[in-house]
Amino acid sequence: MIPTSLAAASLLLQGPVAASLDVDEQAAEQDNQAEEVLSGPQPGEELPALKVLGVYDADSGQELDFVSQAHDGPILLIFVHQVTRPSVGLTRVLAKYAASRKEDGLTAGIVWLTDDRGEAEAYLLRARQSLGFEVPVGISLDGAEGPGTHGLNRDVALTVLVANEGRVTASYALVQPDLTDAMPVIKQVVALLGGEVPRLEDLLPPRRPAGQGSRPQRPRAGQRPQQ
To answer: Which DSSP state fits 220?
Structure first.
């Protein structure tokens, strides 16, 4: 075991940002493992067919099967059980990376789990720009539980599956998603496709400078708006 002082010195040499991300990534992974929560097929198990209702563009209203589209090639599936800022943020990061590996043969899809298909579709269309998902999105045809063949756990916020040749290679059940949870998933994709593991900060949206992007103040009663 490395003495605490040496471990701390090693982190300092890496720089505060890298050290912070590395520590946060390890902590997030340990927290999710400690809970021993499972959701979806586990590594080595077959990835069943998955039918969803497409939402955007040419997919709108069409029945899709992300698994069949992969043709037994590498695939990343993100099941959204709970819509929260952390779950949407992590989904956005994973989708951005998946889109960047499309030309390398990666199929990816986001599966929206809900009992109200109409309301979910309206929300996804209304919030499309703010959600910023860069891979196809489909609404589950099997309600909030998802298809019984997948054994999903509705008590988690996200279920993330990586598969190849029709079998799951990695499965993540995330109760409290964090952006750092993206890295173990991305490393699994890199293990299948090759290439370098990106830095997490390179996948995050740029921060807006202070004072930009804020809404103009509404004029008070009797006050004319500024031209």
So the answer is: P
